[in-house]
Amino acid sequence: MRLEGKVALISGGARGIGEAIARLFAREGACVTIGDILEDEGQRVAREIDDAGGRALFVRLDVTVEEEWRRAVQATVERFGQLNVLVNNAGIYRKELVDETSVEAWDEVMGVNARGVFLGSKHAIPEMKKAGGGSIVNMSSGAGLVGNPNGAAYGASKGAVRILTKATAAQYGKYSIRANSIHPGPIETAMLRPQLLDPGARESSLEAIPLGRIGTPQEIAYGALYLASDESSYVTGVELPIDGGRVAI
Ligand SMILES: NC(=O)c1ccc[n+]([C@@H]2O[C@H](COP(=O)([O-])OP(=O)(O)OC[C@H]3O[C@@H](n4cnc5c(N)ncnc54)[C@H](O)[C@@H]3O)[C@@H](O)[C@H]2O)c1
User: Fold this and answer.
1) Which residue's alpha carbon is at the smallest distance from atom 20 of ligand 1?
2) Cα separation, 216 vs 218, whole angstroms
3) CB 187 near ligand 1, within 6 Å
4) Smaller CB count within 10 Å for the chain: N or C?
5) pLDDT number for residue 198
6) Domain segments of the chain: what residues?
7) Does the annotation mark 154 as catalytic?
8) Is residue 188 within 8 Å of 177, Cβ to Cβ?
9) Mind listing the pLDDT tens digit for each residue in 162-217?
10) H/E element, 71
């Protein structure tokens, strides 16, 4: 198994991409902590992982609140003994353009998508140092690599994640702590569903993708698995698009 003996904390693990990552990591031998504000969904995912023979813990975690990160990391170490992998996956999307974005909306998106990643990294790193190393996988977006025709705060927050990842790689390589970002294209989850319901928007989205289809949460989870595992032991500071070729053209 590819994550045997590892302990992973996954933010936003109650549904969508984070849920797929939690389930895959558990199947590959990791003990997983699912942190999310969706308590019922998160508890259910953790229970189902346990029932399938894995080891999972749910903790309520609002990634914008420093104290909740402190508790999530502490609960993980108390239950599973260490922390080796952090997946900063929780995120929210808003599609307002620059001149339509309120200050409140800007702060909300930056709070979850950028501050959340910073706080998670801040509190996981000391435990990874104790464990002799670790892997941080940050969920950015294609919108963190190139300009997006929709959204203002979203792309800015995902661009912040991209560079924070590289700074983390630069600062903690000496402790064998790696940090890499994943840049999904459009993936079939609750976040994207409202846009995919509009046939025009779906059509134009598909035209921009060489592989000609929307991706699945599982396809992102496999990228996270590689970056979390020791197979990527010499990989740090990289950005991995998983997007059907969207940012290649
Ligand atoms: N779906 C896509 O097309 C797509 C594309 C590029 C990037 N992403 C990124 O992938 C990640 C996962 O998105 P998804 O598509 O699975 O969306 P989703 O909405 O299905 O899942 C997001 C999860 O994050 C959780 N979350 C939101 N705010 C939180 C908070 N303050 N604290 C803790 N948890 C919180 C939600 O409860 C949910 O479980 C996000 O960072 C998103 O920006 C998604």
Assistant:
1) 16
2) 5
3) yes
4) C
5) 83
6) 7-190+217-240
7) yes
8) no
9) 999 999 999 999 999 999 999 999 999 999 988 888 888 888 889 999 999 999 99
10) helix 66-80
